Amino acid sequence: MSDALHFLTIAEASRLIQSRKLSPVELTQAFLTRIAAIDPALHSYILVLGETALAEARQAEAEIMAGRYIGPLHGIPIALKDIYCTAGITTTAHSALYANYVPQTDATTVRLLRQAGAIVLGKAATWEFAIGGSSFDLPWPPARNPWDLERDPSGSSSGSGAAVAAGLCMGAMGSDTGGSIRGPAAWCGIAGHKPTYGLVSRRGVLPLSYSLDHAGPMCWTAEDCALMMSVLAQHDPQDPASANVTVPDFTTGFGGGLAGVRIGVVRHFFETDAPAEPEILAATEQTLAAFRDLGAVVSDVTLSPFSFYDGIATIISRSEAFSIHKDTLTASPEKYGAYGRQRLMAGAFFSGTDYVNAQRHRAKAIADLAVTMQDVDLLVFPSARRTADTLGTNGMAAKAAPFYNRPFNLTGSPAVSVCNGYSETGMPFGFQIGGRPFEDDLVLRAGDAVERTLGTRTRRPTLAAA
């Protein structure tokens, strides 16, 4: 079994651990061995916590053997994007500015994951301060795409996406301000869930944009994301944006159909507003056919043009990011990489009027979406216009940005990206499913259903030891 341990899903591994057919120590060691062999070429980790992870695994195993099994994350090895604060362990944000920053406390989500028995393998690479792009002028190299090491994994949760896809962890935490969970999910061929704004605490996660930041899971499957959400979705009074709501059972209805679920296709996003490549358009139609086979009612819907959402979100995110970094950008600009410095400085050129008007337009976008979703239960469209760019081309800064992610950041709606196929060259596609606020369970159930129907979860990247 040891040769295949790193490609088990969380759901599969947790059943084996619960029945005492799989040792958390054996599982953790299998991942550490694979990280040592593969990651020197992939660069998905900034820091590997080998001794600590094995100690946590031994503790989990002792608890389970004593009859104290906690739940589906008990003994499961995960990674943390290196903007998640970890007590006594560096949290660098992939930046020279924070190279020696050691927090005193864990982020709320890290605490919850540890309490659930998850084992932290290490800190995953990220774009600098979750915005800086795949940069080569930082203290650590950028993560690479495991499907093709010359390609970009996207970001900013670059290391998290690459590590999950390559079998270097079973799940990871990412953050999503403008698509930073769903972009790497699409280009790395995994599942990434951006929860409803306020459903998962962001306390202890280094901020980029207070009103747009989301924290969430990245896994091989939507089912695994749901298992992580069952632990992560808790009210946190220390996060001002945290919502005190009833948390659903995120895995209810998994493995079944979608009879009667009304799905709205935002076709103009990917056909006319920002046209996708032909292979992605074809995969999209196959995915919509799969939804119909599952019993869903599929129809087209019209929203505001994609550029409307993209422009508003850009003004808000850049303005808020600059407000956070203004002092350090002024005092120590040389400690930032070029991409990060340029993108953060852009916020200096928006006025207070720009920001206020953007927030007013945002409120209208939220209200308009609520009206549209009276007639449909889910909204769908591709996650990306094209497959992964060549590493270093800085495609995120290009005029024709590659992703369709920002609308759901602007509205705070839940959204998952799942793999819905592969190109002729073997690069994965991503498909996005969004829903009403706090209906994350339906979003994830739809993601699980389409994954099972399309059968995309049996194919993994092939990586040789470095």
Poorly predicted tracts of residues: none
Helix content: 25-40%
Biggest sheet overview: 11 strands, mixed
How confident is the prediction overall: mean pLDDT? 96
CATH class category: Alpha Beta
Considering the protein shown, what is the CATH homologous superfamily? Amidase signature (AS) domain
In total, the number of strands is 11
Please provide a written account of the structure.
The protein has about 475 residues and is an alpha/beta fold. It has one domain: Amidase signature (AS) enzymes, CATH 3.90.1300.10. The protein has 14 helices and eleven strands. It has helices at about 10-20, 25-40, 50-65, 110-115, 160-165, 180-190, 220-230, 265-275, 280-295, 305-330, 340-345, 350-370, 405-410, 440-455, and strands at about 45-50, 75-80, 120-125, 170-175, 190-195, 215-220, 260-265, 295-300, 380, 415-420, 430-435. An eleven-stranded mixed β-sheet has the order 1-3-2-4-6-5-10-11-9-7-8, with helices on both faces. Helix 4 links the parallel strand 2 and strand 3. It is globular and about 55 Å long.
